[in-house]
Amino acid sequence: MDLTKKQPSLLLALIPIAVLITLLTINVLVLGSDAISGANQIALLLASGIAGIISFRLGYSWEEIEGSIVKSISSAMAAMLILLAIGSLSGTWLLSGIVPAMIYYGLKILNPTIFLFAACVVSAIVSVATGSSWSTVATVGIALLGIGKAMDISEGVIAGAIISGAYFGDKMSPLSDTTNLAPAMAGTDLFTHIKYMAITTFPTLAITLIIFFIWGFTLDTSQATADSSAVLLALEDKFSLNPLLFIVPILVIAMIVKKVPALPALLIGALLGGIAAIIFQPQIIEQVSGVHGDYVKASFIAVMNAMTTSINIQTSDPMISELLSAKGMSGMLNTIWLILCAMIFGGVMESCGLLKVIAEQIIKFAHSTGSLVASTAATCIFFNFTASDQYMAIAVPGRMYADTYRKRGLKPEVLSRTLEDSGTVTSVLIPWNTCGATQANVLGVATMVYAPYTFFCIISPLMTILQAYLNFKIRRLDDPKE
């Protein structure tokens, strides 16, 4: 230990957190949903400045703080690259008619009454198959949101159903990176972790599906029928809705299932979408490019615009025109800005141990198994809030608590399950977390708009805490039956 460096007190560690919470609260009260467009980024940077001043006073050099910031940003670099790929994919899949075709056939098949239930189930199936909540939301999620909006269902509720299903797979799929990370941090194996996690996850999903099923019967579907008919007519008029378009999303999902990394899979999907647009949508190509008489030039301009900048397919109905819009890569830059600022804050907080000292104080209150699990869940949520990244929210508490769980006689899968039940799923509920910022941008629905309806993500940490306090299926090292 470097004797020139001082250990931070709990009060010092809480000052940047208090500043951040105060600034974020003011932003929301004054700017509402526009806070994410710059004000929240500034709040994170100002709180980072406060944390930096504290770090200097504790004896840390700028080089040490900067190194921690760079390391923190590096951990989120893959997420930011995937964001750009998702923006590109959403543009070409709109231009090609893939998303419109999904919306069209979805409206014909799905009944508004069961739509929320079905959206959650479909998202869960796809995310288990792919192991990626991000890929699920960026593909079938966008289409499901369009279908639901055409049925005149609140976009916050639709997004809540999609994200609930997507994060079920993020927890349970053996292909998911978080599902592999949690047991690695806790010291157990993958399939022991998944089997044990089912004890809390399936009841949580069942409650979520019951809520969405009952919710469907409270919807007024009279207006939905008229809106759906208008959307169907507009889609038939604008696009060539060929079933062959579904080859592209099937290929992308197949690549992810075959463990092709998400970034190249999504980029290939974006390029295939551009090719499909050139083949199937010549009239859209000309409309978007503004070029007539030179199809090669028109195709190049349209596909490049779809991948890089926002495009909008105009119809006579403003609501349908909004439905037929995509942001491209440029639409993701604001989210990347938010992630960068969040990772700067997390890096500065970690550089001098401010996050560690807060977490260590939490452990002191964990006297029973229930309170230990509750403390672990609270720590994971805290790291999602401050470090702004679900991997940090799993990895750091996993390292911190592993020895404590072992000393309390608990098997490592108790810890790994708690990490996933709280670290993985709550990340999407925080606007400046990489997950919350990404899903809000991809779906075009603000985090605080969909968060109250992501029942799976809200119930998951409560379920794991409840079972711990009830001592239900808690595995112990001295129990031979377990």
Structure explained in plain terms:
With about 475 residues, the chain is mainly alpha-helical. Helices cover about 75% and strands about 0% of the residues. It has 23 helices and two strands. The protein has helices at about 10-30, 40-55, 60-95, 100-110, 115-130, 135-150, 155-170, 175-185, 190-215, 220-240, 245-255, 260-280, 280-290, 295-310, 320-325, 335-350, 355-365, 370-385, 390-405, 410-425, 435-445, 445-450, 455-470, and strands spanning about 310, 325. Helix 4 (about 100-110) crosses helix 6, helix 5 (about 115-130) packs parallel to helix 7 (about 155-170) and helix 20 packs antiparallel against helix 23 (about 455-470). The mean pLDDT is about 85.
Query: Could you say which structural class the secondary elements and strand pairing correspond to?
Result: mainly alpha
Helix-strand pattern: HHHHHHHHHHHHHHEHEHHHHHHHH
Poorly predicted residue ranges: none
Sheet having the most strands: 2 strands, antiparallel
Q: Approximately what portion of the residues adopt beta-strand conformation?
A: under 5%
Biggest sheet strand order reads: 1-2
Number of extended strands: 2
Number of helices: 23
Determine Rg (CA atoms, Å). 23 Å
Straight-line N-to-C gap: 41 Å
Globular, elongated, flat, extended or rod-shaped: what is the shape?
globular
Average residue-wise pLDDT: 86
Helix content, binned percent: over 70%
